[in-house]
Amino acid sequence: MRFPTARRAVRSLVAAAVITAGLVAGNAGAHAEDDPRVEQVRQVIAALKPLVKQPVCDQVPEPDRWVDAGIPDKGSANVLISAHRGANTLAPENTLKSYEYAFAYGVDMVEVDVQQTKDGRFVALHDSTVDRTTNGTGNIADLTYDEVRALNAADYEPWKGGEYDPAQIASLEEILALAQRVGRGVELDVKGSVTEEGKLAELVGKYGLIEKSIWNSGDPRILVAEPGARIIYNRDSWEPGFLIYEIGQVAKVYGSTLAEYSPESIAAAHDACAVVMPHAYDAGAEQEVAQFQLARSMGADGVQTNQPALIVAAAGEAVHSRLVVHRQQKAHGDDVCLVNAENGLGFPGKTVHLVKGKGKKSINLTTGHDGCVTVPGVNWRGSSVSFAGDGAVHASTARLVPSKG
Fold this sequence. Notes:
Layout: H1 6-21, H2 36-48, E1 80-84, H3 96-104, E2 109-116, E3 122-124, H4 145-149, H5 172-182, E4 185-190, H6 197-206, E5 214-216, H7 220-225, E6 230-234, H8 241-247, E7 253-255, H9 263-271, E8 275-276, H10 288-297, E9 302-305, H11 308-314, E10 321-326, E11 335-340, E12 351-356, E13 361-366, E14 372-374, E15 384-387, E16 396-399
Parallel strand pairs: 1-2, 1-9, 2-4, 4-5, 5-6, 6-7, 7-8
Antiparallel strand pairs: 2-3, 10-11, 11-14, 12-13, 12-15, 15-16
Helix pairs in contact: 1-2, 3-5, 8-9
């Protein structure tokens, strides 16, 4: 398919290179300089390089380590964590609540599947159709923003009929405002319905999030609008170390599955001052921590995860918590909320312990929506409240206000 402008031609070239790169090499020369895929990728690099504005890389390259790394690199001291579609095991994927719960755990960014509606607005949805996760049908590109927002984004298992049903598909503006408020970034996975990448980049820039965010797209219009945008390159297994290093001149983040990486490819990316953040979830939910640990042992700087709480704990980066008591009317039990002490976002599914009368009376309660739980009745007023802490969230204490009289 031909595109009428030079920018569209580069976009086509990017797509062709990605498709070609995905082919499995069938001969011994697949990793050599004369592999035709090398030249195809280099053409993309040459087209994008004049548009990229990144800090000067002062890393001295060590090409020998791209072949045999020896002792693997040590990844970033601050583990980079991206929450895939938000905290999608705690709330429906790509909803504002899933992003709030992810940021409660202090992740560096949330991954957002960006779609564009018929009338040009940006929303968060993974599929090209609304069928799987909502009560609607059809292509999202054929629906207006208002039509999309009227859908129930919790109309699928395991959320249907639960406390998050109904839910609303999040607008990109809502997510960007949330990220701005907590001082974190967004990983933008730009989907096929998006036709105005420049407009999208300008919107992210409006919220001051370009430096904190990363882009799963090589469309040059992003860089034309925001030259400081960081592009993700989804590594395949065929690229030789020298090409990984060259790609790092335009793509400062490496993603894709962990199986595509080795200490050598990570060393080549680091020599280009890029960071490596493979998926932790491809081997299944029970293997996420093990995959994270394997990635770190090879030198990766972080991961993209479905379970941010587990990865935060495994990284040793637990966040501080605070117990907040909301006094209710005299005849009703108070609300207790366990929240991130820095940004005020709640932790659902945590156990808080109430003790009254020198330990003679106690009860355990589990936090729910927004990290809150209602104390059963007024007789617990004056009790001490505590959260014992876990690997992802530090302990905290509070006290219910005593009843008057």
